[in-house]
Amino acid sequence: MPIYEYVCKKCHFEFETLIRGEERPECPNCGDKKLERLLSVPAAHTSSSPSTPPCGEACGLGRDGGGPCGFGGCGEGFCGLG
Length: 82
What we know:
This protein has one helix spanning 55-59; strands spanning 3-8, 14-18, 35-37. It is mainly beta.
């Protein structure tokens, strides 16, 4: 059951909701069903195990690998290389 982000076309309220089957969501602010589904960034579960290498070692990216690591890039505290 995915969680989707929506914005209400009537009151412009942004929210996220869990969708079950063919269920049509409605705005929790005004109750309207005219919604626009927003594009959102998928989330990923990461391990906090000390045996898991930081992203730069695992994917070849990062500050020394020449590419970004996560959304902020290495040095921003996202992957442990900063």
